[in-house]
Design brief:
disordered N terminus, alpha/beta, six-stranded parallel beta sheet, three-stranded antiparallel beta sheet, 334 residues, single chain
Length: 334
Amino acid sequence: MTSVARRSTEIYRRCYCSPSMRVRFFVRRRQVAVLSTPCRTRRMKTIGVIGLGNMGRGMALTLQRKGFDVIGTDAAPATRAALAGEGLTVVDTVQQVAARADLLVLSLPTAAIVAQVVAGPGGLLDAPRDGLLVVDTSTSHPDTTRRLAGQLEAAGMSLIDAPVSGGPRGALAGTMTMVIGGSEADVARAMMVLQAMSAKRVHVGPVGAGHVAKIANNLLCAAHLALAGEVTRMAEKAGVPTERLLAGVNAGSGRSFVTEFNLPTWVCSGSFDSGFTIKLMRKDVRLSQELIGALDIDLPLSRRVAELWDQSAATIGDDEDFNRIVELGTRRPA
């Protein structure tokens, strides 16, 4: 051992699993280092999905198609019945899902509903399951996320935030993008499931960081859409059709995902059927202002974007497609 210990290079000596811990021994010069990483004590076979709306439905069906056993629930009986008709195992309550799941996916519309599912009556904390990993794919407030993660940890469970982009089509195809907040160990433990649901994943930091990144992403998207509506009207008035304008913009520095994808796909086509409502985007923009306010910083352009989206409620109904914001200023109040 003495001659080995004097070597300058690190030598791998032994790796084994105890019931709850994988321990690796490395020998360095004049030092023995022990690196510990959690061992996978529970295979991620049964996945629970809470919230079976546009996004949750797609994720649940994708996971089932890729070989996982999926069990889900939703607050709306009609939604539960519809998913049961599509071949998904559906139960009535959150606790029934959690009792059978190795990993739990949340796909819910607001931070308040996430908090209710976790900490409200009949929620996860009322019947904790030791070792359960919760993946919150909702767009939620990072402070709420951190608070709930602490409560779950105290009850023997874990949470990572992995909000998604890509819409219902991406959820159903498994091509979404995720920005992820959580510990390295928890993210690694969830990775097999995350990979099944998404095409791209970016781990941006600890718990809550995923929701910060998603709020930033959606605020940028909201700003790009509002401004795209104005510049296309400007160009049309100046005699340049939108399709030709976009060809020029997308060849230059002003391009964005909005000009490259949203406008050609849902605006120029007149379909406005992205599956994401303007009510939900207004909620996400309000989340950005709550976060900015909590940070006590002055961001005047972000504030003006939020004001425009709030004002849009007077002329664009809650259930309309979020891309309709490009029509702001062209409609009369209802």
